[in-house]
Amino acid sequence: MQQAAKIIQGFGCPNVIIKGGHGTDAIVTDFVQLKNKKSYLLKSRRIDTKRTHGTGDTLSAAISAYLAQGIDMDTAIKRAHGYLAKIIKHPLYIGHGHGPLNQGEWSNSEYEI
C-alpha cells in the first residue's frame, strides 16, 4: 500500500488513500499518505454486509465536505473514515446484491476525533 501511494503521488496527486475494504481480514486497513510526508493506517472492524456499494465515492465526498468546512486534510480524512465505518453498520436494505450505503446516517457531531 505504501509503495502504491508513493507511485500515485508521483503522478501529481499530493494526498493518497489506499482503501483495504476488498481484503478478507477481520480488520479493514486503509493507508494514508499525505503531501507533508506523513503516513498512517486507519483501521476498522470489518462488518459482514453486502451493503457497501459506493464506499470510495462516499469517503471522498465526506472528505470534501469536511474540507469545505475549513477542516484540515488530516482531520477531514479521519472524520470521514469514522463516518464511513458508522454508516456501514447501518445499511439500507434495498435492491439486490451489493446494495448502497446509508448516507442518511450523516451527523457531524458523531464523527469528532
Describe this structure in words.
This protein has 113 residues and is an alpha+beta fold. It has a single domain, classed as UDP-N-acetylmuramoyl-L-alanine:D-glutamate ligase, CATH 3.40.1190. It is 35% helix and 15% strand. It is built from 3 helices and 3 strands, in the order αβββαα. It has helices at residues 2-10, 55-68, 73-89; strands at 16-18, 27-33, 39-45. It has a 3-stranded antiparallel sheet, sandwiched between helices. Strand 2 (27-33) and strand 3 form a beta hairpin. Helix 2 (55-68) crosses helix 3. The longest helix is centred in the C-terminal third of the chain and has 17 residues, at 73-89. The radius of gyration is 14 Å and the shape is globular. The two termini are 24 Å apart.
Summarize the structure.
The protein is α+β, with helices and mostly antiparallel strands and 113 residues long. It has helices spanning 2-10, 55-68, 73-89; strands spanning 16-18, 27-33, 39-45.
Key terms:
single chain; 113 residues; alpha+beta; UDP-N-acetylmuramoyl-L-alanine:D-glutamate ligase; three-stranded antiparallel sheet; 3 helices; 3 strands; 35% helix
